[in-house]
Amino acid sequence: MGINLLSYVDYVDNPDSRRNFSSFVLHVCGVPISWVSKVQYSASLSNSEAEWVAALEAVKEVTFVLQLLHEKNHKNVSLF
User: Fold this and answer.
1) Which of 31, 36, 71, 78 has its CA 20 to 30 A from that of 1?
2) 27 burial class (0-12, 13-18, 19+ CB within 10 angstroms)?
3) Cα angle at 53 between 47 and 15, to 5 degrees?
4) Residue 77's pLDDT is what?
5) Is-contact 53 22, C-beta < 8 A?
6) What residue ranges of the chain have pLDDT lower than 50?
7) pLDDT value for 48
8) 3-state class of 61 per DSSP?
9) Edge-to-edge order in the sheet of strand 21-28
10) From CA 75, how far away is CA 1, in angstroms rounded?
11) pLDDT at position 75, please?
């Protein structure tokens, strides 16, 4: 069983909020089971900081799914 995570950040050129748009899709065995597309909570000072914020949110979701799979006795999960 494999988990694949795709994450994307887009710089929003909005002078009022200066927040970035981030999204991710989480696949388990090739099937998308979780996806998020939203404006980030805080303003980032650079694009690389916005990418770190998006990656952190995506990793939180992967951690939750891994814990859920381990609770259901799916111990042979690989990340790729």
Assistant:
1) 36
2) middle
3) 50
4) 64
5) yes
6) none
7) 82
8) helix
9) 31-39, 21-28, 2-10, 78-79
10) 9
11) 66
